[in-house]
Design goal:
The protein is an alpha+beta fold. It has a single domain, classed as Nucleoside Triphosphate Pyrophosphohydrolase, CATH 3.90.79.10. The protein is about 25% helix and about 35% strand. It contains four helices and ten strands. Strands 1, 2, 3, 4, 5, 6, 7, 8, 9 and 10 form a ten-stranded mixed beta sheet that branches. A hairpin with a 4-residue loop joins strand 4 and strand 5. Helix 3 packs antiparallel against helix 4. The model has no long low-confidence stretch (mean pLDDT about 95).
Amino acid sequence: MFPALHAPQYWSWGRFDAQFSTEPPPDALVTNIHLVGFADGQVVLCRDDRDHWFLPGGTREQDEGIVACLARELREEAGARMLGEPHWLGAHRCRTEDPVPYRPWQPHPEKAWLWGWGEVALDSAPTNPADGEQVVEVRPVPPAEAQRLLLAGHDAWWGELVALAVELRRRAGLG
């Protein structure tokens, strides 16, 4: 199930070899956290000033916890807050060819991008910090529409990631 999501990948933008697993990585390896957020059953997507659709989330700051990072990134990019705890889908374990880490405090050459799902409330505008993506639109959409929008400019696994979140949410009795 979800063959594109589980296939080995090469992320050329960061020169990473990446492999998805539903097994959570050690906290010390997690550099990035992203969420398939559900607002009233719809998937929350963000669009930046380059017309790129994405799931909210981002890079941990030095000494920042996973849940704290997720809360900060949701506020910055989607104007959202968690309603309850996040549920972890899995992670892409990555190995980079770069000689140094992206940020000095990050693990290197291995790291992990953690993916989750959860219920969110959209209750403010994105804060759009100067050093982050400049979000011009936040849109809750049906899951099929989220998959379609994410596939524009992305690999097929993005749609499967949303499908996995929808399925796990359904199994939890929420969908």
